[in-house]
Structures
1.
Amino acid sequence: MATLMAAAMSVVLYSAYLNFPKEIHGLREWAQALVLLVSGVVLFALHGKSDIVLLFSNVVMTWGLGLMMIGTERFYQVRPSWWIFHSSWILIAVLLAYWLWITPSFSIRVALSSVVVFILHARAIYVILKHGDYHFSMWFFVTLMTIESMMVGVRGVLAVTSNSDVNLLGAGTFASLYLATAHFMTLMMTVGFMTVCTRRLQITLERRSTLDPLTQTLNRRGFADIYAKEHALMRREKTFLTMLNIDIDYFKRINDNHGHAVGDRVLVDVAQMIAKALRVSDHVARFGGEEFVVLLPATGLDRALHITERIQSALCTARPGVPPYTVSIGVACQTSADESLDNLLIRADKALYCAKERGRNRYEVAAEVVQPLRAAARA
Ligand SMILES: Nc1nc2c(ncn2[C@@H]2O[C@H](COP(=O)(O)OP(=O)(O)OP(=O)(O)O)[C@@H](O)[C@H]2O)c(=O)[nH]1
């Protein structure tokens, strides 16, 4: 039953592989791993008296467990340890053949295969703990992997200490317990992997909904979320914040003269150059087209102008693959927490318009809000 369910799970994983965003790796390897494990179990059940089939079923299962490890590594963006994968199945094939035909010993065969499987699981557990995000889903996944590897370890130890009980084709207590739980654990480990994949999917989609795909800066929605947080902080801490509205000059000409691809490269370049000139606590967003907005939390006008000049002078330096271009910047400082985001954006936009009007490649500062906005709203 558990074997049938594992086969069904491989279809689920493969379908997830086809439909999940391509940056979520490892699903294909896990789907292939389940197919191999199911095939290995079927071969093992059918092996009868044939040692060749027994040997082959063990190799197939080692491929399956190896692919689970590779899938886990790929999921956590770790370079796949193909050398562990290949050494494992070659070792299993050679050593099992030796202890099957040359010096037949059932207990050594079990001990050896347990050691190999244990190493594959241990590597996966190490990768999860080193690169995981310490969320519930990760702990669930790693706990299941650990239980499975401990079961394998116990079987290996029992093989060399008590001879007969570990034979999976026999009727010993451990063999019955092991068989009952081993297939179930394969299923559970897959569920654990699907849990971390689902969490990764959620994070990826959330990020996609708040990021501009070309420049990887915030989009309008992401910016509004960040602004709400910074605005609440500003109200609490009674500080200022400053907004820069940055627009590339004559961007249409860049597209017309160099092509859209170079235009896109310029957009990525400007996002990178702006980010380089900022602190990590500052935020950059692309508001569509060639317009960028920067939010400088806890920053008054003097410091904001310093940053504005830094951005403009950084853009003057020649960079390979990017035609020369300039930007105009509108600077608006928010000194009252009662001012709305829309109003701040309008002031920054007006200042930008002024900079464009006055010849471009320059900045202009927005007029301050003259009267307290609450009083104005009440009037
Ligand atoms: N390559 C590229 N071009 C874009 C993208 N989005 C908008 N544009 C182009 O940006 C240009 C904006 O042109 P305008 O609004 O006339 O502005 P401008 O030429 O920069 O002139 P000023 O802002 O007045 O200095 C248009 O040609 C759009 O096609 C994009 O994602 N990639």
Note: The chain has two domains: 2-207, 220-378.
2.
Amino acid sequence: MEKLNKVFRTAQLAAIDKYTIEHEPVSSLDLMERAAGIWTDRFLKIFTEVAGVVVIAGNGNNGGDGYAIARLLNRRGVPVRVFRIAGTQDRSPDCEANYRRWLTRGKVEELKQADDLVLQKGEIVIDAIFGSGLNRPVTGLAARIIKQMNASVNRVVAVDIPSGLAGEDNTWNDPETIVCAEYTFTFQFPKLAFMLAENEKYVGRWEVLDIGLHPEIIARQPTDWFYTTEDTVKAILPPSPVFAHKGTNGKGLLIAGSYGMMGAAVLGAKAAVRSGIGLLYCHIPGKGIEVIQTTVPEAIPDPDESAERFSAVCKLRDYDAIAVGPAIGQGPETVGGLEKLLRTWRGTTILDADALNIIAEHRELLDLLHEGCILTPHMKEFERLAGKSVNDFERLNKLSIFANQYRVHIVLKGAHSVIATPDRRLFFNMSGNPGMAKGGAGDVLTGVLLALAANKLNLLDLLRIGVFAHGLAGDCVAEKEGRRGCCAGMIAERMGEAWKRLEK
Ligand SMILES: NC(=O)C1=CN([C@@H]2O[C@H](COP(=O)(O)OP(=O)(O)OC[C@H]3O[C@@H](n4cnc5c(N)ncnc54)[C@H](OP(=O)(O)O)[C@@H]3O)[C@@H](O)[C@H]2O)[C@@H](O)CC1
Ligand SMILES: Nc1ncnc2c1ncn2[C@@H]1O[C@H](COP(=O)(O)OP(=O)(O)O)[C@@H](O)[C@H]1O
Ligand SMILES: [K+]
């Protein structure tokens, strides 16, 4: 049974917290103690040589976690200094309780001005000023202290969320008054903001810590945001039937490449034949036959009448899916070929790269999109389709509006590639690494998705599976060759290794 990994809005967390307290049951103070204990354990696993820590605690429950973490680290023999921000006194009840518990072991120094924060060499700063309760930009002394933290060379580790960062929309925020952490250990759920490139400088590397919030309320709370992990994919990846033959594994057509740009077709084809497709046809320009036959002998060439580019698919066989776009160019014949394809083929259609650029330029083609269409733009291609965005959060909104308006599935590619569905759900991918930010890596994804579509998986499942497996293959490459050494061809070659890890 598939367990959906949900991303909640920070405004929903209090209800989940409350339900857990009432139904586990557990006191809120014990829940905080549990969260702080799990946080401390993880911190000490990652940071094995800690000369000392400086906890900066606020007055809300995030500060409460900070005081509890200070006590637990101190108990484990770590030298701990604790600071609070002057002028603020109204601690939440659990923060107050942990503040008092800490006072039995050590003192709390007051930061009256930013310069009071003097850090020793090697001390790690634990940021527990604000958590998910932030409701406006940080100003005043707290803002100056955050700037001081960011200016220091000391490492900073955030409790739950970097102080000053809002969980979702930061359009209104002041980028200068958000803690820049090296690591964030967050409780139970990733925050949407962690998925966005623009927040990487604040969040650093992040991990979700399971603090045992109640599964019933997690299952019941609605959300339209999810994330895909290895477990999700293992649960939805169908097994290969023992009596499979190439017919049951599906027939797909890849329309890719132009004269002098055949690499994209080769990469897509290599990935498709390593991702379980029964029969792969490659529609390539007339002059591209030899390239495909020598590099991907498994593929059946379907040459275009044009020697140099895609102009038309003359014979539409009984394909289960078609992918079109990588390096096809945007010349007039190709525009005509794409238009004809969209008019005559209404099955599963993966549109990538130049197919998307053509649609962005010839906007009447948008009306030919249908529910079988999957669009796989990177950020720039999406901007061409939907216009510029002021930030990543706004782009996400545009993405889900676009998918809804045209009733299509979209994969917006990048770190944490996100799948948008026609019913406005978003699924963030958790595999992959920056080593994949190389030319051709997207062509590989197109091939993977074509293979899964030919296998007649439903669109959302095939996207979650394909995007994750593609990232996992990139991770396999990076593990062996390093990120710099990772290239698109290697990702295609390693698809088999990724599938082996995911198959039951
Ligand atoms: N989820 C869970 O189950 C668990 C959660 N836990 C922990 O709880 C944390 C959330 O705690 P929280 O709700 O008390 O919020 P937190 O951010 O600490 O304080 C907010 C306070 O600050 C204020 N304030 C807001 N913005 C401000 C600003 N810009 N400048 C100045 N003040 C500002 C605001 O007060 P206001 O001024 O609006 O009255 C509010 O009172 C969460 O991150 C996690 O660490 C764990 O203990 C275990 C289980
Ligand atoms: N930092 C990153 N982390 C994880 N995956 C990434 C990262 N950067 C790029 N990728 C992945 O690599 C692929 C790049 O695709 P794309 O930009 O279309 O390249 P091309 O058009 O050259 O084939 C996408 O699947 C994307 O998700
Ligand atoms: K924090």
Note: The CA atoms of residues 187 and 209 lie 5 Å apart.
